[in-house]
Give the backbone structure.
Amino acid sequence: MFNISKIKNDFPIFKYHRQLTYLDSAAMSLKPKVVIEAEDNYYKKYSANIHRGIYRLSEKATEEYENVRRKIAQFINADSEKEIVFVRNTTEAINLVAYALGRVNLEKGDEIVTTIMEHHSNFVPWQALSNEVGAIFKVIDITDDGYLNLDAYKPKTQNPKSKITTKNLNFLESIITKKTKILALTYVSNVLGTINPVKEIIETAKKINPRIITVVDGAQAIPHYKIHVKDLGCDFLAFSGQKMLGPTGAGVLWGRKELLTQMSPFLFGGEMISEVYLNRTIFAQIPHKFEAGTPHIAGVIGLGAAVDYLTQLGLDKVRDHEKDLTAYALLKLAELKDVTIYGPKEIDRRAGVVTFNLKGVHPHDVAAVLDEENVCLRSGHHCAMPLHERLGIDASVRASFYLYNSKEDVDKLINGLLKVKKIFK
Ligand SMILES: Cc1ncc(COP(=O)(O)O)c(C=O)c1O
């Protein structure tokens, strides 16, 4: 079990806001001191540009930056650090694939498959690409209880003996065809909290069409679970440092070496070249050919410290802690009258994201009242408008948990909601 007060001590924000109950980690995690110090150290002690200077300060900065690349490769069990491309965030990582691979390889009549539970970051780039090249944009629906609608797919917790097999994913065969070039799906829904059986879906998709390219949005998964890309079987994985205790503006695209090597650059300019002549340019090798211009050096170095922090704490423990909190929150919310909770009920198939609505009260009003109680909640469509439309609502309230949250935070949420009910009833 976590020692929450010890963990909270690692996060300076709690010294400035002693009463803070932060329940918006799905939007952005708080930052531990070690991450802030790593960034600070870079600026104070060796703030030179990377990959260019042959003086010691620049070499030190390059070494620290490249060490993080190795660290991330290890963290997600990639084959090589050459497969790690530093970007600003998940959004940029997905756009990179859509531009550099999608635009070149897709033509009229091809298909792109995604799901209704995607964040706009893994929806709009594919929709835009489909419109541009004349591809068919297919969207996998959800069941009423918040799972991807994959025919006979049943959560493991309902029947421990049932395995998610290709047989359970028959429905995919009516969606994915030989013309499907891209399958883009999220590991965890940022609204429903659903943990998708991504490995099994990819396995099935590749059986139907071995040439399909699979892109996994790992933004809500990487901060909370151990994910091994080789085991997952995907071709690309995108995630943001800012949701995993790291600084803003430093994210990651992992891609299979063969694919990254074949792809053309996304942005052109300095850093991404090997040789430039008047009429032609030879691009750098991967991953540098995708990292044009000066990157967010301090941010990447801070991200390295975040990975160390998470590794030391143990992602399995993080997941267990969040499972406890989520189960407790679901229980307590269900005890309140007039609350609609969205997403799966099975705790094993659900992440630490609890989205709900209070009957007759606008989500923004809920969040505003809770703010008065020092509880930070997200309200709105959470960058998932198609999903909200599917749920038949315009907006919702979302509480999301991370390693610094405790059951007392859930209690504060519930007490705040009781206050909302009093005000608005
Ligand atoms: C599932 C998911 N994908 C993508 C994103 C976008 O992340 P970023 O804004 O860091 O690009 C988010 C952010 O909330 C998310 O929850």
Q: What stands out?
A: The chain has a mean pLDDT of 94. Residues 315-335 form the longest helix (21 residues). The CA atoms of residues 113 and 138 lie 5 Å apart. Residues 26-27, 89-91, 119, 121-122, 186, 190, 217, 219-220, 240, 242, 383 surround pyridoxal-5'-phosphate (CB under 6 Å).
